[in-house]
Amino acid sequence: MSELSGTDIDALSEAEARAELPGLIARIEAANTAYHTHDAPEISDADYDALKQRLAAIEAKFPSLKSESSPTEQIGGQLAEGFGKITHAVRMMSLANAFSDEDISEFDESVRNFLGLKADGPLTYTAEPKIDGLSLSIRYENGRLIHAATRGDGEVGENVTENARTISDIPQTLDNAPEIIEIRGEVYMSHADFEALNARAEKAGDKRFANPRNAAAGSLRQLDPKVTAARPLKFFAYAWGEHSEPLADTQIDAIARLETLGFKTNPLTRLCDGPGEMIAHYRDIEARRATLGYDIDGVVYKVNDLALQRRLGYRSTTPRWAIAHKFPAELAWTQLEGIDIQVGRTGALSPVARLTPVTVGGVVVSNATLHNEDYIAGRDSRGEAIRGGKDIRVGDWAQVYRAGDVIPKVADVDLARRPADAKPYEFPTHCPRCGSEAIREEGDAVRRCTGGLICPAQAVEKLKHFVSRAAFDIEGLGAKQVEQFYADGWIQEPADIFTLEERFGQGLQQLKNREGWGEKSARNLFDAIAERRTIALHRLIFALGIRHVGESSAGLLATHYGTWENFEAAMTRAEIGQGPDWEELLSIDGVGETLATSVVTTFHQEAERASIDRLTAYLTVEAAEKPKSDSPVSGLTVVFTGTLEKMTRAEAKARAEALGAKVSGSVSAKTDLVVAGPGAGSKAKKAAELNIRVIDEDEWIDLAGGA
């Protein structure tokens, strides 16, 4: 988006971006856990959204870097313990974010481009306040409330049915409703009720809640419904999941239908004709923000025509037809007490500023990213001055900037307040954890520890990644346990996890006697490890921690190769820059040379390959699921070439993938079908040479089930 694509992003080199990602992702993951799992946010929603926006901007500029556990491919957080689980019939998605008026114009343009609509043609949107609460999905069948679930990770949420029944804004029964309907909205707490709740808590000697969102989330996720019933929770409905019949033809009429069913909807929801009216309504809501009586953190825009929403579809975690326009950021000054160096799983040395705690917009900030050594020295990737050439030194008074960029970030320093004895910071040339030389390759903005597997920081971070939610997700084996077991010598590499109980013989006895463990928790851990001996292919590929391979690209690789045996054999045979296996790898839509080189290199490095082989010896790897589609194009590899006239290339690609086809960017012997429009050139010619079926756009539309 525009604010994130200004000077800072434009000047960012690929090497600088690669150096920045580990620290950026670590902050997002920590915030995810605190916010979604523990209902105890450590940073504000604006901070969290801005962190993800920064990450998305970097990934947009450098697609090959979309790999470092990318949180942009995730929704929500891990489930809290103590609740049953409910699988959402229709996935609950996140929203992409915008931070400026230009972003909204770009959003409108992207929608029009995807649909092939004229820039000045009619296109309306709804605009509504973005409630700062907890997302909830409520399922009704034959008019009766069946169950209610939090968003969770988007696919599976916590069963809070009995708690939801205590909220007066949620009807127990519906009249004249579809036979099946899932109503979605936000549970929140008003400012007045929040203050009264905290007053009662203080009088009783209990802990105060930090903010209304925290109070609402904590209240809904009580194990005792009686506690929830005593809390003043409210609910705004704004969307739906599975439904047996349409609510309406447009978003605005569907919202009106929700009202007739007995739900409260936000009275500030408006129909807007284009970006001008959308932004005007945003300004109006922003002006009323302090008097609404409940927390909001922006405005949500949605394409009004539901048929167009269906055509636009979804990215991996967000709909193309909606966006959240967030409220702006703030600045604060504080003193820089020190600079720490963190070592990531790829060996990157990332500097972090330790700050005298300062409150910025109600959030206490005590550390901030410093990007890399050039940023500290006052230079950009081209060696040109930033901040007027001012370097950053311990003892400086630093300006902390939040939202719309790295959050928190040291944006500037005040030379007038610089201590007389402040010295230029000397970036380390050796790893602070293992002492190995830290080298900076030509053209790279980051120094990397050369210690590899002997570096404890890299080893621990790789293990943390291995057990992360999108990878093996072993219940009971999180970051803290990994650190503990590594320090004790119990786990040094992923394969060790699956021999833990066996190697100790009486492992249960040893573990249950440790602080924080009991017989039940120890047994549960070993059982959880055993359960993960069977793993999905895309999870295994992601878990390996190969540089540049994130959840999305791991999924692409898994879908293309199908089985671990196929993938492993192809990577073993592949030679960088040449040969059929290399060409096949590059033919996967979304796989570039940087990612391909990283994957092939990993499989040809002796130590890395040996570690992978030791791991997979203990695993049963499930083949990639074949798309659930009875479409005749399901399972085919399709290449689009030339000009499409009835739908855009983006829409055609999205439609093909939704029907279970693989879309490739190049023609090879493994291509099944080429869709050629006017102007088709070398790809159509190569398809003819290989005797591959070539069809025109009309034939494609018929094959894909109509326009």
Automatic annotation (TrEMBL):
Catalyses which reaction(s): NAD(+) + (deoxyribonucleotide)n-3'-hydroxyl + 5'-phospho-(deoxyribonucleotide)m = (deoxyribonucleotide)n+m + AMP + beta-nicotinamide D-nucleotide
Keyword annotations from UniProtKB, A to Z: DNA damage, DNA repair, DNA replication, Ligase, Magnesium, Manganese, Metal-binding, NAD, Zinc
List of residues binding NAD(+): 45-49, 94-95, 128, 151, 186, 302, 326
Cofactor(s) required for function per UniProt: Mg(2+); Mn(2+)
Catalytic site positions: 130 (n6-amp-lysine intermediate)
SMART domains per the UniProt record, alphabetical: BRCT, LIGANc
Gene3D superfamilies cross-referenced by the UniProt entry: 5' to 3' exonuclease, C-terminal subdomain (1.10.150.20), 6.20.10.30, BRCT domain (3.40.50.10190), DNA ligase/mRNA capping enzyme (3.30.470.30), Helix hairpin bin (1.10.287.610), Nucleic acid-binding proteins (2.40.50.140)
Binding site for Zn(2+): 431, 434, 455
InterPro entries per the UniProt record, alphabetical: BRCT_dom, BRCT_dom_sf, DisA/LigA_HHH, DNA_ligase, DNA_ligase_AS, DNA_ligase_CS, DNAligase_adenylation, DNAligase_N
Start and end residues of each BRCT domain: 628-701
E.C. code: 6.5.1.2
GO molecular function, one term: ligase activity
Source domain of life: Bacteria
Family: Belongs to the NAD-dependent DNA ligase family. LigA subfamily.
PANTHER family with a match to the protein in the record: CHROMOSOME TRANSMISSION FIDELITY FACTOR 18 (PTHR23389), DNA LIGASE (PTHR23389:SF9)
Annotated function: DNA ligase that catalyzes the formation of phosphodiester linkages between 5'-phosphoryl and 3'-hydroxyl groups in double-stranded DNA using NAD as a coenzyme and as the energy source for the reaction. It is essential for DNA replication and repair of damaged DNA.
The protein's name: DNA ligase
